[in-house]
Amino acid sequence: MASATSTSQISGVFAWEALDSRGRPTVGCEVTLRSGARGEVVVPSGASTGTYEVHERRDGGEPYGGFGVRQAVRAVVDVLAPAVHGLDAHEQETVDAALVDADGTANLSRLGGNAVLAVSLATLLAAADDAGLPLYRYLDDSGLPPLLPLPMVNIVSGGAHAGRLLDIQDVLAVPVGATETAQAIEWVWRVRTATGELLEQQGEQASLVADEGGLAAHLPTNAAALDLVTRAIERAGLRPGTDVALAVDLAASQFALPNGRYRLAIEDREVSRDEWLDEVTRWCHEFPVVSLEDVLSEDDWAGWVELTRRLPHVQLLGDDLFATHLSRLDEGIGRGAGNAILVKPNQTGTVSRAQRVVQRALESGYACVVSARSGDTEDSYLADLAIGWRAGQIKVGSLTRSERTAKWNRLLRIAAELGDRATFASRQALGGRRP
Question: Is 293 annotated as a binding residue?
Answer without folding.
Answer: yes
